[in-house]
User: Which sequence fits this backbone?
């Protein structure tokens, strides 16, 4: 049997397994992370399941360990409470990437099986263990039963022949593999890599290569652990470890002999990890940012390579460099060796350990039009942001951050590229007044009323901060009041022309313009209140959105849904149901001017 067949058979009731067999596999480490962890908890609760063995069950918070996203923070808390109640070990936001922790903490060692809500759990192939990413239903079932079904894959053997060039890093090796096999030639296969040069690969190197099995479509990439890796794992487990080796006459679907002396420094071009290019083809491509980290390149060796290049230098003007170690122990080692100081002196942002740019996580995101060199494993559109992402080694990322464009460590310029401002060539160019004809707006309006009898409705109740990344006013309306108790369905019931009447201090809180624009998005005509938050009042007036302050509306004898008429010039208000009238403060001269102008601009 091949390595994967031996591991799966030893964790099942089958003495012999072959490709295509479906077996129930005993799982040694069953992991849920903050991405998907709350769904695992919900599946356990909704189906009245128990936990088969809490000692083999773990949470790892690595996708957004800063808790900067409120949805992540909510999911994390759901998992914390569940873990607390059941005695499940939880590696919280200060720990690092879960798959790396499994190795670092001795929870997984050669020959073990592990599953996680992480598509890169196959990183465990680096130590000769079986790791697999699975969905929340699979994880919940494994937590409950201790086992999960798995279809035995076919195996492929890759032989490294020749010697690696001196300037090649592990990331270059895996990008060369991607250039040869693409995203689907190894689809569904278990891959084993052999050859004399494999012995030169450290644990960190092997992790980099194994972690990108997912991008090649492979189930896993296995390396047979040498004495150094066996010793590393034995120190962390306190156990004597015997690795699982391939048997003689094992059957492979295919076997490839690769001359690694022909491998070159490569990058993946934006959009597809397998769309790789000789780095010479993209040299001097201007960049806005660089990122060093992820489960692929956040290890100690990666940090040392980056620090060696950055030491005594400065990141190019206008370029942002973000560095995220994979685990807290790597972070501490960086601190002990003085690497954190080197990173900071160079001008880099250093974050706490975690996944960083993946899954819209902590740092490493980029915006539309931004060009990034990243050591991550994926550069699908939107994965690390809406900009363009080139995948490269830590050496290339660090060198490029210093140069201001894609380059290699041996081609860092003495002076970096600098962004030049776009200036008006004609020094005599003048700003011209543009006279626009604005159609006069009505000063008398009518509409259906919403009576919201609450004081101190703040901007988070009006338009919650989780939606602040929305910039298109057309999209804002549907989130109006969804954080105001009793009015969560307001956006679905409101109609264009409606008028809101509320009480004291409406719009207190932050300075967000969204809290005004969301009403404009829905077509709300006006808001009446006893008082407004100072910033909110200015925002509304500047947006030409009618707001009025009243002292007492009792004479109107209003009921929710009554139609009223408001004269913005005089302040007269009439309840059209009973013709009752009151007078409130009319528009000021400035408010009317801005209103008729269609806004401050």
Assistant:
């Amino acid at each position: 049997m091949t390595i994967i067949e031996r591991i799966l058979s030893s964790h099942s009731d089958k003495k012999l397994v072959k490709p295509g067999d479906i077996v129930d596999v005993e799982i040694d480490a069953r992991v849920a992370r903050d991405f998907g962890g709350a769904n695992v908890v919900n599946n356990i609760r909704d189906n009245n399941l128990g936990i088969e063995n809490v000692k083999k069950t773990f949470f790892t918070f690595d996708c957004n360990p800063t808790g900067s996203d409120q949805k992540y923070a909510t999911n994390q808390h759901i998992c914390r409470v569940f873990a607390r109640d059941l005695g499940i070990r939880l590696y919280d936001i200060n720990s690092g990437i879960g798959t790396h922790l499994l190795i670092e903490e001795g929870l997984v060692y050669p020959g073990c099986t592990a599953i996680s809500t992480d598509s890169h759990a196959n990183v465990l192939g680096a130590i000769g263990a079986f790791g697999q990413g699975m969905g929340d239903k699979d994880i919940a079932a494994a937590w409950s039963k201790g086992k999960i079904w798995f279809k035995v894959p076919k195996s492929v053997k890759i032989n490294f022949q020749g010697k690696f060039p001196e300037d090649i890093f592990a990331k270059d090796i895996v990008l060369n593999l991607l250039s040869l096999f693409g995203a689907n030639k190894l689809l569904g296969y278990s891959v084993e890599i052999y050859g004399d040069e494999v012995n030169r690969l450290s644990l960190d190197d092997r992790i980099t290569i194994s972690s990108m099995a997912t991008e090649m479509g492979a189930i896993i990439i296995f390396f047979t652990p040498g004495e150094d890796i066996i010793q590393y794992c034995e120190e962390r487990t306190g156990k004597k470890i015997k690795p699982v080796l391939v048997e003689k006459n094992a059957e492979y679907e295919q076997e490839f002999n690769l001359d690694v002396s022909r491998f070159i420094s490569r990058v993946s071009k934006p959009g597809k990890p397998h769309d790789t290019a000789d780095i010479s083809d993209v040299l001097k491509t201007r960049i806005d940012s660089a990122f060093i980290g992820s489960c692929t390149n956040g290890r100690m060796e990666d940090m040392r390579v980056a620090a060696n290049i950055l030491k005594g230098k400065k990141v190019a003007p206008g370029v942002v460099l973000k560095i995220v170690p994979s685990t807290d122990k790597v972070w501490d080692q960086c601190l002990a060796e003085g690497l954190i100081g080197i990173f900071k002196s160079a001008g880099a942002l250093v974050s706490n350990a975690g996944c960083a740019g993946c899954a819209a996580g902590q740092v490493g995101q980029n915006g539309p039009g931004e060009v990034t060199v990243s050591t991550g494993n994926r550069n699908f559109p939107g994965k690390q942001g809406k900009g363009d992402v080139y995948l490269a080694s830590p050496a290339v990322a660090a060198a490029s951050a210093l140069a201001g464009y894609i380059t290699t460590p041996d081609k860092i310029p003495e002076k970096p590229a600098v962004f030049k401002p776009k200036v008006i060539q004609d020094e005599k160019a003048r700003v011209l007044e543009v006279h626009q004809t604005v159609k006069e707006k009505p000063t008398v309006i009518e509409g259906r009323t919403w009576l919201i009898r609450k004081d101190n409705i703040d901007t988070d109740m009006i338009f919650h901060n989780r939606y602040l990344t929305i910039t298109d006013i057309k999209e804002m309306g549907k989130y109006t009041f969804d954080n105001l108790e009793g009015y969560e369905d307001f956006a679905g019931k409101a109609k264009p022309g409606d008028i809101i009447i509320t009480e004291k201090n409406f719009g207190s809180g932050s300075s967000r313009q969204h809290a005004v624009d969301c009403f404009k998005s829905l077509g709300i005509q006006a808001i009446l209140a006893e008082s407004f938050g100072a910033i909110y009042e200015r925002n509304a007036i500047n947006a030409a959105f009618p707001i009025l302050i009243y002292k007492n509306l009792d004479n109107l004898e209003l009921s929710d849904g009554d139609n009223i008429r408001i004269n913005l010039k005089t302040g007269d208000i009439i309840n059209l149901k009973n013709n009752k009238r009151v007078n409130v403060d009319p528009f000021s001269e400035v408010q009317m001017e801005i209103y008729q102008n269609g806004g401050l601009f």
Remarks:
- The chain has a mean pLDDT of 94.
- Residues 3-262 form a domain with the Aconitase; domain 3 fold (CATH 3.30.499.10).
- The longest helix spans residues 70-86.
